[in-house]
Amino acid sequence: MPKPHKHVFVCSQQRPNGHPRGSCAQKGGAEVLQTFWAELQARNCFDRIAVTYSGCLGPCDQGTNVVVYPEGVMYSNVTKGDVAEIFDRHLLGDAPVERLLAGEAIW
Description:
- It is a single chain.
- By secondary structure, this protein is an alpha+beta fold.
- The chain contains 2 helices and 4 strands, in the order βαβββα.
- A 4-stranded mixed β-sheet has the order 2-1-3-4, covered by helices on one side.
- Helix 1 links the parallel strand 1 (6-11) and strand 2.
- The longest helix has 15 residues, at 29-43.
- It is globular.
- The termini are far apart.
């Protein structure tokens, strides 16, 4: 496998209902992850982009959270409807999606 130009981590943390920190899984994390994988496949970007599920990335109350490396960009409140835009603008176009960026107090 060639070294990817971008590596996307999607929080899939699952906590019990009512947990004070919440969890990205309860906020659509699995759907977001599946949508990233579907976009990766549809765009045939396996040699440039890697998508990996992860445990907690920190601010689960702001979930679903996604981090893109090597830039270290964190997105919060990501939905499956945001994934194509992240692909187009950031992963392929090198311009982060400003409206989804985690606040400075978070990251």
